[in-house]
């Protein structure tokens, strides 16, 4: 698939000023300035994050009310229920809040709604359970901000809510005792991008101060907090960066039994990074909710014994194996559907529907299809008597607005810029599909249908030193708004030693101005002919460290390549 290359820019005056202050390679200064790190002091905070830089939790709107209500429940011997969503952010938030509260007050339990029986967020079944079991305070984590009617229902039953959420609030807020959500327009909290587990962490931080508990009482759960940050794809900036930095340190030094068991089953032996959590831990935790019941994810996170944790982790691991099998078979079936019908290939969208597809993986399948046919994609399946589906977008296109424009054909829908979900009647599938195609075709810019590679900076091979790489690694943890830097090197030549490996990949041995460096390019063997043309190439890559037989070498992770004279 042809890709667009987009090279980021940086203010040259700021780059020069930072270079004078830091005395490091100007390319590194360019990367920092692009990320808003443009002075010595800001750079110091970025490279040496400190827990002392965490914001005062009392700055968050309603924090005093939340702490007061929890204290009242504890002193009044009330039963407290921690209620969370079934994804990684929700289950980890429940686990940290539950463990923290139980350490000071044993009459605390948790509730995770069943994805298919109850749906997303606060559920009536959960509130009814709380009433029957005698709970009078529910602390919701990673959900609740939009549950106006259900929290009113709980109030009428004599159950109070403290909401800890990070999703965008509506104009009408639920009648909770306290709402902790930095995205509220009148919330003065300085950092707005916490995940659900991060908001729960701030409540724990405030309660610890209120009860004069040591900092370790809440800091001990940072391994779960960073897992939520990684899985929920929130920006790795500001407070999230501090929490992620120390959370990763904890995972690498002394992980909890649950995280350790998941990494063990994922065969992770190298240093744990955000990527390890995104690609190894998160899918296994999410699979519990996708394929079965997410309660066992919380049980895993709170288990202290490694052998017991390993047994629970194997349940999640098996769920993930089932998820991968369903994902693979549905993706293959979906690709066959598209390739066998010319009408599909001519559209600006993909909308597919099969009654037997597993509801838990349709979102993943939509993402897989975009890798093959780069356009807004919706995958639908039968859910009881209705049709339910997930949508995924291409970069730069507002998917939610497109789905909103088709609302006449839908029973319900929700989502954001890049992803959405919807329900509809079976007889509306064709009309909805045609309307969605019409809306997207009339609003999407043609260039958005070509994948874009964002490149941070041009670089010469002469700059690729161990010192450069060591400073680059100190920019970790990488993630949204602080992505792993992508470079372009121009007028690079093949040495004649590059080759195709395992049919799909290229092993690179390339040179620029008599400096030779090796690299690997996964899944790009179709472009090997460019290396054989003995012509100058521009290559796009990230920088890796390769360790083999005790020897360390820098290598390129090649993303794309073109002939140097090709316009980008």
Largest sheet: 5 strands, parallel
CATH architecture of the largest domain: Alpha-Beta Complex
The structural class is: alpha/beta
- Strand order in the largest sheet: 3-2-4-5-6
What is the count of structural domains? Answer: 3
Provide an overview of this structure.
By secondary structure, the chain is α/β, with parallel strands linked by helices. It folds into three domains: 4-48 and 453-563, OB fold (Dihydrolipoamide Acetyltransferase, E2P) (Beta Barrel), CATH 2.40.50.460; 57-316, Alpha-Beta Complex (inorganic pyrophosphatase (n-terminal core)), CATH 3.90.1640; 341-449, Diaminopimelate Epimerase, Chain A, domain 1, CATH 3.10.310.30. Helices cover 42% and strands 20% of the residues. The chain has 21 helices and 19 strands. The strands form four sheets. The chain has a five-stranded parallel β-sheet, with helices on both faces. The protein has a five-stranded mixed β-sheet with strand order 7-8-9-11-10, with helices on both faces. Helix 5 (88-104) crosses helix 14, helix 13 crosses helix 15 (306-339) and helix 15 (306-339) packs across helix 17 (362-372). The two termini are 15 Å apart. The relative contact order is 0.09.
């Amino acid at each position: 698939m042809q890709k667009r290359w987009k090279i980021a820019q940086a203010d040259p005056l700021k780059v020069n000023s930072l270079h004078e202050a830091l005395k490091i390679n100007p390319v590194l200064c360019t990367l920092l300035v692009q990320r808003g790190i443009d002075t010595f002091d800001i750079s110091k905070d970025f490279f040496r994050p400190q827990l002392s830089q965490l914001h005062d939790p009392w700055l968050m709107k309603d924090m005093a009310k939340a702490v007061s209500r929890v204290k009242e429940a504890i002193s009044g011997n009330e039963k407290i229920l921690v209620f969370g969503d079934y994804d990684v952010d929700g289950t980890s938030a429940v686990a940290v809040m539950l463990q923290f509260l139980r350490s000071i007050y044993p009459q605390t339990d948790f509730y995770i709604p069943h994805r298919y029986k109850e749906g997303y967020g606060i559920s009536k079944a959960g509130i009814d359970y709380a009433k029957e079991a005698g709970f009078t305070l529910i602390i919701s984590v990673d959900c609740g901000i939009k549950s106006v009617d259900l929290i009113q229902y709980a109030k009428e039953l004599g159950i109070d809510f403290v909401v800890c959420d990070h999703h965008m609030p509506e104009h009408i807020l639920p009648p909770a005792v306290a709402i902790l959500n930095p995205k509220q327009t009148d919330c003065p909290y300085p950092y707005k991008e916490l995940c659900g587990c991060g908001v729960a962490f701030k409540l724990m931080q405030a309660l610890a101060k209120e009860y004069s508990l040591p900092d370790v009482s809440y800091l001990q759960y940072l391994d779960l907090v960073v897992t939520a940050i990684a899985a929920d794809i929130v920006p790795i900036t500001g407070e999230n960066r501090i929490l992620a930095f120390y959370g990763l340190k904890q995972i690498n030094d002394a992980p909890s039994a649950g995280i350790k068991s998941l990494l063990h089953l994922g065969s992770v032996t190298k240093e744990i990074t955000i990527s390890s959590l995104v690609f190894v831990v998160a899918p296994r935790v999410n699979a519990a909710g996708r394929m079965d019941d997410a309660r066992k994810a919380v049980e895993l996170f709170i288990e202290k014994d490694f052998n017991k944790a390993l047994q629970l982790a194997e349940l999640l691991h098996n769920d993930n194996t089932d998820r991968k099998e369903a994902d693979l078979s549905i993706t293959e079936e979906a690709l066959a559907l598209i390739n066998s019908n010319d009408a599909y290939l001519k559209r600006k969208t993909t909308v597919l529907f099969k009654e037997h597809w597993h509801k838990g993986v349709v979102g993943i399948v939509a993402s897989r299809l975009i890798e093959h046919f780069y356009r807004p994609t919706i995958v639908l399946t039968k859910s009881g008597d209705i049709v339910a589906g997930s949508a995924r977008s291409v970069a730069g296109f507002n998917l939610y607005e497109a789905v909103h424009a088709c609302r006449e054909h839908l029973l319900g829908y929700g989502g954001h810029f890049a992803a959405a979900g919807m329900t509809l009647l079976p007889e509306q599938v064709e009309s909805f599909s045609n309307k969605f195609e019409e809306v997207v075709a009339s609003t999407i810019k043609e260039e958005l249908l070509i994948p874009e590679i964002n490149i941070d900076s041009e670089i010469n091979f002469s700059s690729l030193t161990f010192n450069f790489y060591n400073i680059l690694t100190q920019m970790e943890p990488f993630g949204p708004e602080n992505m792993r830097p992508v470079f372009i090197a121009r007028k690079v030549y093949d040495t004649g030693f590059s080759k195709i490996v395992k049919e799909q990949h290229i092993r690179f041995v390339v040179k620029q101005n008599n400096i030779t460096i090796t690299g690997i390019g996964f899944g790009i063997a179709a472009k090997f002919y460019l290396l054989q043309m003995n012509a100058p190439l521009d290559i796009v890559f990230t920088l890796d460290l390769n360790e083999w037989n005790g020897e360390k070498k820098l290598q390129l992770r090649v993303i794309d390549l073109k002939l140097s004279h090709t316009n980008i």
